[in-house]
Amino acid sequence: IRQLYVKNSNPIEYKGSFAELGEFPYVVLLLINKGMSCTGGLLEPAWIVTAAHCVVDKQNKKFIPEDITIVDELLIMKILMFHQYKLQLVKAYMYIQIMILTLNHY
Hints:
Distance between the termini: 22 Å
Largest sheet: 6 strands, antiparallel
Structural class: mainly beta
Radius of gyration: 14 Å
CATH superfamily: Trypsin-like serine proteases
Strand content: 35-45%
Low-confidence stretches: 1-10
Order of helices and strands: EEEEEEEE
Strand order of the largest sheet: 6-3-4-5-8-7
CATH topology: Thrombin, subunit H
């Protein structure tokens, strides 16, 4: 996915009801090529923190920024990753690393 223009087609459920677009302005929905999706949190207007396994494939290859789109039509400029990062499963479905994404509008 190079660019995806979506308006709330993947709603987030919160306490049994769906959140409205903009209701949680510091939470972002990341759409990754191959149909995956993850959430992230804004640290500041240009930085997003997300789980590392959201931006790395099973062979520990980092996705390129063009593979990730934010529902708000913003594109990722850079994925910051520790050079020694290796995707490692701690328990079933439990990973312990984070990634920082920088947005291209800053």
